Protein: High-affinity branched-chain amino acid transport ATP-binding protein LivF
Organism: Rhodoplanes serenus
Amino acid sequence: MSRQDEAAIDTGHGGGGPGSAEAPLLAVRNIEVVYDEVILVLRGLSLQVPRGAVVALLGANGAGKSTTLKAISGLLKTENGSVTRGEIVFDGARIDGTDPERIVRRGISQVMEGRKIIADMTPLENLRLGAYIRRDGEVQDDLERVLTYFPRLKERTGLAGYLSGGEQQMLAIGRALMARPELILMDEPSMGLSPLLVQEVFGIVRQINRDLGVTILLVEQNARAALSVASFGYIMEQGKVVLDGTADALRDNEDVKEFYLGGSGDQRKSFKNLKSFRRRKRWL
Ligand SMILES: Nc1ncnc2c1ncn2[C@@H]1O[C@H](COP(=O)(O)OP(=O)(O)OP(=O)(O)O)[C@@H](O)[C@H]1O
Ligand SMILES: [Mg+2]
């Protein structure tokens, strides 16, 4: 990373957020994503995730959050989407355009929106599937370790399709862990869960990050829950980042409070129409 880049990404918040001097584990730089060769969905999106951090990516329906994660994990290809501009750098190497399986081998696992577990396999079979790329002899040990985070899954010997929503979410996270990733991309883990279960799932996210040192990029519509575990957050609208800051700064931001933390909740309002909205030129 050049000196100029380092200066450009200094958000001035300090505290080890994406403004810190060490090269980030993941850097998404000014990407454009197009589906079916014509539908432009991401329009110059940039973000970064420092090693060891939990970073939140927030935004309303259709903002492009899942598209961002799929661009990183390579899964865009399976939906006839592609990165047409910009670059994605993971651990010092370009990964945009790389096949999803190679990206998993490099150390990125995605927990898909809607969980996508395999309903007609048992939870244990689902977990083992998460280790399919591994050729080492420690899969069984890891299985035991993962189950210590999700003790309830041990008791569920039937098919995964019969698990509750919260259990399925935990299984999906457990399966991602089985690949021994450095970075987990999580797509709306709170979706469809009761407030109590949301707390439980986010408690596990925090534990995984602290105990195992796994870096996490967390996509959420539930800004309150996400900012309770993340140290830094980005808010996106219509395919680009419109605001970013430390979790504390975002929680205290009046606009964020109004739009995302239980204010009017009117999604039609836009940061773009606010006086306080300041377009960031640093990536242009
Ligand atoms: N496979 C696809 N082909 C064409 N357009 C798509 C495809 N997937 C997503 N889109 C479009 O891209 C835009 C962003 O979608 P995306 O799923 O990334 O949003 P999101 O922020 O994850 O929304 P949500 O909160 O509803 O999950 C939407 O307008 C959507 O219609
Ligand atoms: Mg989505």
